[in-house]
């Protein structure tokens, strides 16, 4: 079921104008956000049929750009159950049909990779049931996919999950190697259009940038901004060498100061400057806007917002965090800016169509965001009648002879 979105503007916005991002020719500027949904088996093997149906539904409008949920790039980067992985051939085989389904709808996909901020304690690796109870059990989850009771990145619901381990040069190099191999699997194995590097919300790369390791890492990766950003730049350099700059996006959360770094603003400005200097052909910069979780979201186009970083970046910039129709239209009056939707895209598989024609949106069911391995709250949100009617008309125009035969 696919229909074409026409090239028109609304209220002087560029939201429905085509744009080139990396090697992709997008037909509008509404992007599917990466969002953890736990529709995987306990061992990280993605549930191919279920996840394929989800992404296929959200590829209903040709030229749409989708970013997958966070994927563990290797054994060192993960440890949580029901989170997708991509570090062996079986993982590749499970993801390949999902990517193919997106491409068959003439849409595009980047696979996002993340790393936990440290290695899980051995007892949690052995006792996965206890880990599940802590990480996905009674502890509620916030809209980012993180447990709401996150006291720090090390503590969930009062439980310290990670080993307090020195991060030496060898460990850093192992992470870079795993990440690079995962990027190659994504592009050359699964057929994805690219990958997104995750330097967000205090996880591993962000932890280095915000000085979260303190003195407990190699001296060349701590202290000065130049040192703290070194890991990110080395990882990015390795990945782009393997798959090309145009196939790589980079995500930051500059308004999250989970490590309480005194210079987190300066750190992120420095990161973007270095990206601009060293990776001029990077597909995009992806910025999470300032938000207030649980109590609604701020008007993100006031005061601080991602456009501060666009002044430095100047290339395609993706803005995520609490967008609705009005904020997306307003944001995309700026050239080279795209609006990223998570909860609304989950609840509305035909979201670009609904936004274009001002059709009321389905409301998401938060209680089903993280219902492990379940189709409920995942692939059961309805398309609007207007979309179904127009899609049927398109199909009939494609196959007029079949329609005539049915009459006879």
Automatic annotation (TrEMBL):
<protein>
    <submittedName>
        <fullName>NADPH dehydrogenase, (Old yellow enzyme) involved in small alpha,beta-unsaturated carbonyl compound</fullName>
    </submittedName>
</protein>
<dbReference type="InterPro" id="IPR045247">
    <property type="entry name" value="Oye-like"/>
</dbReference>
<dbReference type="GO" id="GO:0010181">
    <property type="term" value="F:FMN binding"/>
</dbReference>
<dbReference type="InterPro" id="IPR001155">
    <property type="entry name" value="OxRdtase_FMN_N"/>
</dbReference>
<feature type="domain" description="NADH:flavin oxidoreductase/NADH oxidase N-terminal">
    <location>
        <begin position="15"/>
        <end position="362"/>
    </location>
</feature>
<dbReference type="Pfam" id="PF00724">
    <property type="entry name" value="Oxidored_FMN"/>
</dbReference>
<dbReference type="GO" id="GO:0016491">
    <property type="term" value="F:oxidoreductase activity"/>
</dbReference>
<dbReference type="InterPro" id="IPR013785">
    <property type="entry name" value="Aldolase_TIM"/>
</dbReference>
């Amino acid at each position: 079921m696919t229909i074409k979105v026409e090239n028109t503007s609304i209220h002087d916005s560029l939201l429905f104008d085509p744009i080139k991002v990396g090697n992709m020719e997008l037909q509008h500027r509404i992007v599917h956000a990466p969002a953890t949904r736990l529709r995987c088996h306990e061992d990280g093997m993605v549930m191919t049929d279920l996840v394929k149906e989800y992404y296929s539904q959200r590829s209903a409008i040709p030229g749409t750009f989708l970013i997958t949920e966070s994927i563990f790039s290797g054994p060192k980067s993960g440890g949580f159950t029901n989170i997708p992985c991509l570090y062996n051939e079986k993982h590749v085989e499970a993801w390949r049909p999902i990517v193919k389904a997106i491409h068959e709808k003439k849409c595009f996909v980047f696979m996002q990779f993340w790393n936990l901020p440290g290695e899980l304690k051995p007892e949690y690796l052995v006792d996965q049931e206890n880990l599940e109870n802590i990480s996905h059990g009674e502890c509620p989850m916030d809209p980012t996919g993180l447990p709401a009771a996150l006291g720090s990145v090390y503590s969930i619901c009062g439980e310290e999950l990670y080993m307090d381990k020195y991060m030496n040069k060898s460990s850093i190099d192992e992470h870079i190697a795993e990440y690079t191999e995962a990027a190659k699997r994504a592009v050359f194995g699964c057929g994805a259009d690219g990958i997104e590097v995750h330097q967000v919300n205090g996880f591993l790369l962000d932890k280095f940038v915000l000085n979260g390791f303190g003195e407990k890492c190699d001296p060349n990766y701590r202290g000065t901004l130049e040192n703290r950003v070194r890991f990110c730049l080395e990882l990015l350099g390795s990945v782009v060498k393997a798959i090309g700059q145009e196939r790589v996006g980079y995500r930051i959360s500059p308004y999250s100061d989970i490590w309480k770094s005194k210079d987190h603003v300066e750190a992120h400005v420095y990161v973007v400057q270095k990206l601009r200097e060293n990776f001029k052909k990077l597909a995009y910069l992806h910025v999470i806007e300032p938000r207030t979780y649980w109590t609604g979201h701020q008007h993100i186009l006031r005061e601080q917002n991602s456009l501060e970083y666009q002044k430095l970046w100047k290339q395609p910039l993706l803005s995520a965090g609490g967008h609705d129709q009005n904020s997306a239209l307003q944001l995309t009056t700026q050239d080279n800016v795209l609006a990223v939707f998570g909860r609304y895209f989950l609840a509305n598989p035909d979201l670009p169509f609904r936004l274009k024609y001002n059709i009321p949106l389905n409301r998401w069911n938060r209680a089903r965001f993280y219902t492990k391995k379940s189709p409920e709250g995942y692939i059961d949100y309805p398309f609007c009648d207007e979309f179904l009617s127009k899609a049927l008309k398109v199909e009939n125009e494609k196959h007029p002879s079949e329609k005539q035969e049915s009459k006879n």
